[in-house]
Amino acid sequence: MSIITRSPFLFRINTGSCNGCDVELATTAMIPRYDVERLGCRYTGSPKHADILLVTGPITARSKPYLIEVLDELPRPFVVVAIGTCPTSCGIFRDSYSIEGPLDKYVEVDVNVPGCPPRPQAIIDGVAKALEIWKRKIRDFK
Amino acid sequence: MSGFLKIAIRNLLKGPTTDPYPFGDTFIPQKLRGKLKVDASECTACRTCEEVCPSGAIKITKNEGAYVHTTWYNTCCFCGNCEFFCPTGAIKLTTDFHTAHFQDEKYSFVTVAVIKETECKNCKTKFVPPSEALLKRAYNGIDIDLDELKLYCPECRKKIAFERLHLWLRH
Ligand code: SF4
Ligand code: SF4
Ligand code: SF4
């Protein structure tokens, strides 16, 4: 069976973000001004369809099981993008007792987009980089 | 006319509202707090920025003959505290928002400034030269050659200032 290499699906998960990054991410998804789907990807509501995983938040103790669940459900190969300073290094929440991040403890991250929150354009940059990696991964997977 | 038709016609006349980025230019607000820039010639390695940084993004280390000022963007929250508290204006946030990078650059995505020490003209001890901005503030309204003063370490500078005062009092 051949793998379709066009229109990868994006799936996003919030792992305890303050909502700042989610607002910027929603901006890239829903406001025509920063339409990220122009790059040839689409948002999906199910991790089972996802090719690119976008993660916001520092991975709080409460949200960790959900992240693990999503990681288990992703079809291989997949690309992981850390959106914001939180998933990249836990940012200002580093050393808190309730924080279990950063993200690269649990999964191989491909792209980081630090910023608190990052600008929509920076997120688009990150998705563009993720698409590059995804194409490479698909090629190597076949 | 219904709202939808109005928008449809407006879009037909005005063209797409989408920001052309990443295929074209984008709008950048003047006050955007992006990546920062450190002017090594203004920085005195006073560590104020390291102290006030809420996320511990700045580290200043001492090497042989120089201080190394490193800012790690992966933990910086772009609050601007460092710029606000820097006494010499050496650190400034720019409008550069390009922060996306691949994972293998995670720990090298930094800004580095090297602040070199110089030798005191008088006693030969090593010290970080004070910046012009700092001296102007310290010797505000005093008739003194700042470029000459820069060559002396704080101890010798103190002595020179005191001697000046002494001479002035004797007159
Ligand atoms: S990076 Fe900043 S804006 Fe984004 S979730 Fe963390 S604290 Fe909020
Ligand atoms: S902008 Fe804020 S978080 Fe970033 S280096 Fe300066 S003080 Fe630290
Ligand atoms: S950048 Fe400013 S606050 Fe930071 S060490 Fe240099 S002079 Fe001090």
TrEMBL record, chain A:
Family matches, as Pfam families: Oxidored_q6
Domain NADH:ubiquinone oxidoreductase-like 20kDa subunit: 18-129
UniProt keyword list: 4Fe-4S, Iron, Iron-sulfur, Metal-binding
GO molecular function: 4 iron, 4 sulfur cluster binding; metal ion binding
Keyword set includes Flavoprotein: no
Cofactors named for this entry: [4Fe-4S] cluster
Residue runs in coiled coils: none
Domain of life, per lineage: Bacteria
InterPro entries: Complex_I_20kDa-like, NADH_UbQ_OxRdtase-like_20kDa
Assigned protein family: Belongs to the complex I 20 kDa subunit family.
Protein name according to UniProt: NADH-quinone oxidoreductase subunit B
Organism of derivation: Caminibacter pacificus
Lineage, top ranks: Bacteria, Pseudomonadati, Campylobacterota, Epsilonproteobacteria, Nautiliales
UniProtKB/TrEMBL annotation, chain B:
Keyword GTP-binding attributed: no
Gene Ontology molecular function: 4 iron, 4 sulfur cluster binding; metal ion binding; NADH dehydrogenase activity
SUPFAM superfamilies given in the database record: 4Fe-4S ferredoxins
Annotated GO biological process: aerobic respiration
GO cellular component: membrane
Domain 4Fe-4S ferredoxin-type: from-to ranges: 34-63, 66-96
Gene3D superfamilies to which the protein is assigned, alphabetical: 3.30.70.3270
InterPro entries referenced in this protein's UniProt entry, alphabetically: 4Fe4S_Fe-S-bd, 4Fe4S_Fe_S_CS, NADH_quinone_OxRdtase_chainI
Record key words, sorted: 4Fe-4S, Iron, Iron-sulfur, Metal-binding, Repeat
Keyword Iron-sulfur among UniProt keywords: yes
Pfam families given in the database record: Fer4 (PF00037)
PANTHER family in the cross-refs: FORMATE HYDROGENLYASE SUBUNIT 6-RELATED, NADH DEHYDROGENASE UBIQUINONE IRON-SULFUR PROTEIN 8, MITOCHONDRIAL
Protein name in UniProt: Formate hydrogenlyase subunit 6/NADH:ubiquinone oxidoreductase subunit I
